[in-house]
Amino acid sequence: MGSDSQGFSGRKGVAMDRVLASMKDEGVFAARAAWSDCLGEQALSADAECLDIPLPSDVVRLKEAGRLRDAARACRAALDRVEVPEVAARLRLELYRLARLGSQYCVPEDEALKQLSKECPNISYADLERLKAAGRIDWRIIEGEVRYLPSVIDGLRAYAAEVPGLAPAVRDQAPRRALRAEMARVGGASRRITVRASMEVTDTTPEETVRIWLPLAVDAAQQRSVEVLDVSPGARISASDAQARTAYWEFAGPGARSITYRYRIDAPYVDLWSTEGIKAARAACESGVAAPLPAPTEDDLAELPPHVRFSPIVDAVARHIRRQALSDDPLEVARAVYLWVTGNVDYRYQPAYLYLDGIVDYALSGLRGDCGVMALVFVTLCRRLGIPARWQSGLYSAPDDIGPHDWALFYTPSIGWAWADCSFGSSSRRMGDEERRRFFFGNLDPWRTVLCQRYQAVFDPVGPGVRIDPCDNQVGEATVGERSVDAGSYVRSVELLGMEELPWEGSAV
């Protein structure tokens, strides 16, 4: 989750930490009530694997009505009665989520209107209702009050034309167009990038054990020559090809840890929209030049509960896409998936993924999502249609912008593995830039940092409590003692320290 196609990013980790801290300083972030009946039950990250187990109907109704305390009491009562371990895990996780849902949706509607009115003096509650009805604002009722995510104003900047007076959030597209043109001319682009990541845990005592996992660049199809340049003492660094590579520390808190690393990334260019381009991609695949990854495995076609499921809505959308494909050729089927996702799913900021039920079904029913949601939708639909697909995540590391971002890979026998960035494609459609939309079917720019190669990858070592994001790790995780950390008790940052342009050598291998 992270970047929109216009380049603004950091939505899942860096910006959230900053916004929450700022709102707390301004007195807007209301302190979470003492949920003694919930917080006493410590959930585990593994409990998230049981997310697709249904909750008791009274818990669901109370939660959707915004009566979170009553929902927690009903959930606790059900947990006291349950005997099945998986059902207990689901209830335990729900108690954890209920206690913190108000920290996700923490902006009262009147405060959002007040902040928007600084740029849009004529904005009204009726305008907010219109924007909610259009799906531009994510909202919830929390204990009788309509609340928004702290990213509400940034999210609306993507649709500034619908909010008169609001300044759009844009990045200079000229260097991005120039980069794509250069890649098309010479066959690709390479960079050597230096990144620094840090995390500080503040809400702890000197006697408590603090654990921090900071993400680190991994050896991947397009990424190599990873060097650790500087790291806080005591780090345990996982294998270079780990599915979610980390530097791990364990110490008596409070405290901060950081790591600085450098890597090379190669972004090959393919043109999958012209006959000649497809012929060239096929020739490269047959010659072995374009083979950045091994052959696909069964996992690349499989479900991955609780989010990657071949549900009724996935089946229905997949059948619809199959009918739209120009032929049964796997490349044409993958193209049809990309065109459908980028043509129908609009970008909208999300709460932390821990608070979403069935991410792919959620996106297909509402046609809204961020980069991680869209990548997962693309992967799921491809797999359902027999196209091997994988997910990757990390950072969008552009010269003027760095923050969390997700994308996907897909495989066809004719061209091998290729990339797809559906959120950049979706916003290209919104911007009316078809060239850019086409580019991100088959290609990525070299402004990337690959950190994770499998959704819901387990850390080494595994920690107690629930991760901030059990699905991913782009800006860091921490625990204190045997408990998870909550918003306001930590600060995370990621910085782009350097970028060197390298000559293109003709392969991503």
TrEMBL record:
Gene3D superfamilies referenced in this protein's UniProt entry, alphabetically: 3.10.620.30
One family name in Pfam for this protein: Transglut_core
Domain Transglutaminase-like: 363-424
Transmembrane domains' residue ranges: none
UniProt protein name: Transglutaminase domain-containing protein
